Structure formats: C-alpha cells, structure tokens
Amino acid sequence: MSSEYPVVRSTRRWHGVNAIALLVSGAGVLANRPGLVLSGVVGVAFAVASRVDAPPTVDLAVERRLSDADPAPGTSVTVTVTVTNTGGALCPDLRLIDGVPPALTVEDDSPRRGTALRPGKTVAFEYTVRATRGVHRFGPMVAIGRNASGTIERRRTVVEADETTITCVPPLSGTEPVALPLYDRAVGVTGRVATRESGAGTVFHSVREYRHGDPPNRIDWNRTARTGELTTVEYRRERSATVVVLVDARNAAYVAPSRDDRPAIERSIAVAGTAFEGLLATGNRVGLAALSPTECWLAPASGQAHRGRARELLGTHPALSPTPPEEPFLKMTSLRRLRHRLATDAQVVFCSPLSDGYAATVARRLHAHGHPTTVLSPAPTCAGDGNRDERTRGTEPGVQLAGIERSFRCSDLRDDGIHVVDWGEEPLRRAVETASRRWSV
Amino acid sequence: MTAELDTRPTPLGVGLAGLFAAGVPIATAAVPLSLVPSLFGVLSIVVGTAGGRKSVPTLGVGALLIGVLTAGLGGARPEVLLLGTTCLVLAWDASLQAIDLGRTLGRAADTTRALTAHTVISTIAAAVIVGLGYGLFRIPGDGYPVTVLALLLFGALVLGAAFRG
Q: What is the ipTM metric for this complex?
C-alpha cells in the first residue's frame, strides 16, 4: 500500500548541457568544423530527450519478515524486506529506504537499496539489527523513483499492510539483584526491614526490666542468674515496607553523551529492575511507576506473578519507550496524580539520571510529603554501548559541565537528608554499599 | 542511534564514470594535444566521483570538453568527435548518478541494479541519438556544410524550449 503526500520534483540533472552543446557548436561554426557543430546538435538532442521523459510512477507494496519477533536483548535480528512493483510501468531507478525503528542499530548490511523494478516484479533485501529493550515499530518505507533520464523524481512513503514490531523484554534484573537498604521508618506486616523500634526480631536493640506477659524466650536468663532480677531482651522490630520504584521517563531522562550512545533512561530502567527484584526478595511490597507524559502505574504487591508483570512493564510500557516522548509533560498534574496513588507509608526509589533540576525537585517534594525517597542515579556519561573510543568518552566540555551540575544536585539532595546512590561505571552493588555507608541507619 | 552514513559512491559507480570518461581520450587520441586536458578530465572525474563531491567531476567534464574542442579544432574526424562527445555526456551522467545514489543510499547499500539499469538505458538512448544524428549527417555523402548544421542546432534548441513548458 503506497500512500501520503507523493512529492514530485525536478532534479535539474541535465541543466547546463545546452550551454556545453552551444559552446561546442559555436567553436565549430567559427572554425568551420562540421564535426564540432554535429557534436553540439547531439548534445542538444540529449537535453531534448531528457525533457520528453515522463515522471516515474511509484506504486509499491512492502512486506517485512523478521528472523525473531521477540528476541533477547543484544541478539541479532535479520529483517527481510520484500518490495513489489504493483504499478503498470517500469521504475528504472528506484531507491528504497526502510523505516528502521529509531532506537535500533543496524549491525550488518544496509536497510537501503537501489534497484530497477519492472511491473509485477519483486525485490528482496536483508539487513540485521541488534535488539534492545522495548517495543520497536517499523516506520513507513521511503521510496524515491526517478525516470530513465534522472530528471524527475517522485518521493513517497509506503506503509506495510500489517505493522511489524520487534518486542524485546530483558530479564527484570540484568545482574544479581541488589538489596537496597531502605529508610527504617517501615511499618506494616512482618518483614525484613530492621526498624529503630524495639520488639520481636533478630537484631539486638536493648535490654529492659521484665514486664508481666513477656515471652519466656525473651528473658535474659544469664543476667537473671547473675543479678537475680528478670530482664527482657528487646530486638529491633522487623517490618516490611511498601516501596514504589519510580522511573524518570521525561524527555530530560533521554540524555546521552553523544547521538550514537544509548540514552540514560536505559540504565535507569535496568537499575529499576535490579532494585525491584532486590526489594521483592527482601519481603517488601514493591510497585512501579514512571514520571512521564503517559500514565504508567503498577500497584505495590508481591509474588511471582507480580514480578512477571513488572518485567513486562519495564520492557514494553509505552511510557518507557526507547525513544523520547512527544507529548508535553505536565509537571504539577503528574506529580499530584502520583502522590494520590502512593500509600501513606510508601517509600519511593527514584531512578533518574538527575539531568535537570526538576528531577531533584521531584525527589525533594516526595520526601517532604512523607514518602522517604532514595535516589538511584545512573550517570548519563556511562550510558554508552561501546561505539566510541573509551578514552574520549565524557571529555567534551559540555558533557563535563553537565556532569558537574549533576554532582551538585546529588550533594544538595544529600544535604536535604535524601539517600542518593550515584552509580558510575562500578557494579551497582558496590555503588549501593559505598552510598549506604553514609546513611545513618 | 544510527551511525554516520558513508555517502561516497560505490566502486561500480566510480568505475562506470571512469570508463566512459576514458572513452574521450581514446576517441580523440588522433590529436595528441587534446590528451592533456582529456586525461586531466578523466582523473578529475574518477577522483571527484570517488570522493562524492559534484564540483570536481564537473571540473573534469569541463576538461574533457576542452579536450574534445582541441581535437575538433585540430582537425579530428566528425565520427571521432561524435564518439568523444557521447562519452563525455555519458561520463557526466554516470558520475552524477553514482554520486546521487551514494548521497541517498550510502556506500553500504546495494545499488548495482539501479546503476546498471540507468547506464544501459542512457547508453541505448545515446546510441539512438548519435545513430540518428550521424545518419542524417551522412545522407548527402560527405556531410552537410556548417550552415545547415547550425540551423539544425537552432531547430533542436527551439524544440527543447517547446518541451520546457
């Protein structure tokens, strides 16, 4: 099916040939050389022939086949494109540019093809893309047809009858899950977050005078034998927390050191998955949300089915699309909606590259509104996928300046009592350990 | 996430342009003086096409033109000049086509069919035009005088102008 705004234009290919012909003929007339004048006549004949040539017709049908529509991240997917000339005329010069999904990188061969196509005939070509996280839709193919003399060009887009998509859902946690230490204000059912309150648990808290009704197994018998007084051991009360992992998916989160690098949001999503898995494993109820123009919310819960839903959401939700959102982000509305959804006691793990001031504001506001917030911030300068020389990475003045601004944002947040994990090149586990040493638990 | 596209033409495109360009010095070799600009023209077309810049092959076409003119003024036969001019036009066309395909589709894309189909059609068109022109020229036996050819040229220009609209 061919459609949308065909554009016809002159390529001005033979402009100037008349001038050359006249120059040759003129010289021939002056020097009385019939051969030169004849050459000039032939030159003009070329120009006339090119003007007689009609505009080309471009009526095409396109079909794409994938070697794997649901690949694992990093695997190669071969795309076979078949284009058929459904029109009634020969297309002597047909240039095809396939609509490769913008977030995918072509690994091998070219998604472009130059050919000539007779009516009813088909041309097929293949190229390979490397699968990355997300739902990748193929765009319309751009077809540029030219007539035989190359003087007139017709450009149109060709849409496939059935839309082809590559869906790539990575595992929830790319590495071993990391247990992120939470704020000890956790309340709720018994879990594994040791709070500052005393009660039943496994971590020693204090010793107090025996009160009637204390269970015998909590009585410190050694001390009783020594002093003759009954004392009861208090442990740190262990509770589970309700945590919402919030992914920054605004336009600002799609920053990358250069055009060829993967945007920072990919690392944010990866870190969100790892944190989600870790929090779930330590017995917490974990939910997911995105700070983006498109609404994205997975209510806190636990269990294997919930884990599967989270994996699917992080992999395919439109709010976490591999390309930046086009709709405007409404700051006040989005934040208000999120706060309404968060349970009163819910903690927030905010995964954001902190590439602008608003990201820090969000963390501060949520923290101030009684949702203890931990910021997990992957450095955008480490977002590359190895396309560039490691030595030149992040050395450009602009990138360095952005890095300095970001480190100031991290320090300001820490000054406000917010836990911040600044994740660079090191493994996430080490970054969390380093950061949690500063947190007074 | 797409890497920078290499927009230089494919070796086949450069080869075709160079092949046609080489036809000019071969055809006009009878006048040795014409070889100087012609060979420079061939070199410019090959180098310019390979680099993907249109200005250098245009300069090369200019040099080839000087070569044809030198041969014509030096007394070369009409058949030789006709062949030289045809090769010049085809070299220009092939060079532009190769550069254009490179710019639109890149060096990595397979453009063989687009290049060969265009070249075949251009060559056939050139053969027909030259054949007709030469046939007309040879009707009186030893060719028309310059005045008649000049009038023919004028007629062709008017015809071209009529199709412009």
A: 0.86
